[in-house]
Design a protein that fits this description.
By secondary structure, the chain is of the alpha/beta class. The protein has 17 helices and 16 strands. The longest helix is centred in the middle third of the chain and has 18 residues. The structure holds adenosine-5'-triphosphate (ATP) and magnesium ion (MG).
């Protein structure tokens, strides 16, 4: 775990970081994003002591890094800078083995790891091991840069705009590889970028920065759905939810107060409730608001008016959880040819109802936001 505690950084009189506090959990990929000059690189370099804070502390797994030997610390933290920082006079193999050798790892172990890392980043070791950096394309060099950061066996890897110089295709494939590697190797990665699409694609959490301060720190989903302020909305662009329908969940598109009835009421009462609310179906709930069935006007008209709802209700009601996304909801409604579907929480309590018109109104409100924004 990496903890920033009340970090302040001043250059002469200019304060570039103002009381910055942030916790980064182990095994997470956290992205720092924000306008040029907001302090991303400064914060990143503080983690491996390339920059010292003016005041405040950084703890790595509970230890204040200012008490550690900086050289030792850096050997244990992978670091990828924009231009890869490969040593031009060393082969790819030598570049990758440098830090493990300095750390005194055994030759056989180092060789095996170098080989594996190149394979992971999609470079054929037989072809590339003995080449020099200048004999590789920019994208291939960046892959080696990523492999080298992972070669340190460290739990923490810092990446400062590592893919910014790449063409979109190479960039996408390296993003995918990084995502997979992080999942497999369970590293803690702090990744700086200018690119919100990149952040959304790879991050567990995104930290949006402005003038050395945190504007929002949350999962990509939450940032897209609930931007903290106009700065964040502008930064992510209003169209994103519209472009990512999987981010709209049942709870965002449902009516949250569906008309319902308790199972112990009778048919006459049900018909009255339907008339009052101008609906032709009711969700049936028990005392604890759990969904236990439903009735439609058509199905209950045939019965004696005194019959209890419990006796006549349809018990096999299809429902979705409040976290089901829009695409799955639509698929379920299409597959079962139904015009509405109740939404329940994890305890099967009725949370809402999705109808064709609730979907339309949720989508059109997104559309209106978009039109206002552009
Ligand atoms: N050595 C220095 N002396 C004075 N000011 C500095 C120094 N290094 C950085 N700064 C200032 O600190 C601020 C933060 O710089 P930093 O490099 O962290 O920005 P950044 O968010 O990484 O920007 P970019 O996206 O352009 O890389 C900037 O205003 C920069 O001018
Ligand atoms: Mg920078």
């Amino acid at each position: 775990m990496i903890q920033f505690k009340n970090i302040v950084k001043k250059y002469k009189t200019k304060t570039v970081i103002q009381r910055f506090s942030l916790d980064i959990d182990s095994g997470q990929l956290v992205v720092f994003i924000g306008p040029s000059g907001c302090g991303k690189t400064t914060l990143l370099k503080m983690i491996n002591q390339l920059i010292q804070p003016t005041s405040g502390q950084i703890l790595v797994n509970g230890t204040d890094i200012s008490t550690m030997n900086p050289i030792e610390l850096r050997r244990n933290i992978g670091y990828v800078i924009q231009n890869t920082g490969l040593f031009p006079h060393m082969t790819i193999k030598e570049n990758l083995e440098l830090i493990p050798k300095l750390k005194g790892e055994g030759p056989a172990e180092i060789e095996k790891k170098t080989f594996e890392l190149l394979e992971i980043v999609g470079l054929d070791p037989k072809e590339f091991l003995d080449r020099y950096p200048k004999e590789l394309s920019g994208g291939q060099q960046q892959r080696v840069g990523v492999a080298r950061a992972f070669s340190t066996n460290s739990d923490i890897i810092l990446m400062d705009e590592p893919f910014s110089a790449l063409d979109p295709v190479t960039r996408t494939s390296l993003q995918d590889e990084l995502y997979q590697m992080q999942r497999e190797l369970n590293k803690t990665i702090v990744f700086v970028t200018h690119d919100m699409d990149e952040a959304i694609k790879i991050a567990d959490k995104i930290c949006i920065l402005k003038d050395g301060d945190i504007v929002q720190y949350d999962t990509p989903e939450n940032i897209l759905k609930n931007p903290a302020n106009d700065f964040v909305s502008d930064f992510i662009g209003k169209r994103r939810v519209w472009n990512n329908p999987e981010l709209l969940l049942a709870e965002d598109i449902m009516i949250s107060n569906p008309v319902k009835i308790h199972a112990n009421r009778n048919i006459l009462q049900a018909i009255e409730i339907m008339k009052d609310n101008k609906v032709d179906s009711l969700m049936v709930t028990d005392k604890t608001n759990r969904l236990i069935g439903m009735v439609t006007l058509k199905s209950i008209q045939l019965f004696n008016r005194n019959a209890s709802i419990e006796e006549v209700m349809e018990r096999n009601v299809l429902s979705v959880s409040n976290e089901t996304n829009l695409l799955s909801v639509l698929a379920i409604m299409n597959e079962h040819k139904i015009g509405y579907v109740p939404v329940v929480n994890s305890m099967n309590q009725l949370a809402g109802l999705i109808t064709r018109s609730s979907i339309l109104s949720a989508l059109s409100s997104q559309l209106i936001e978009m039109e206002v924004a552009f």
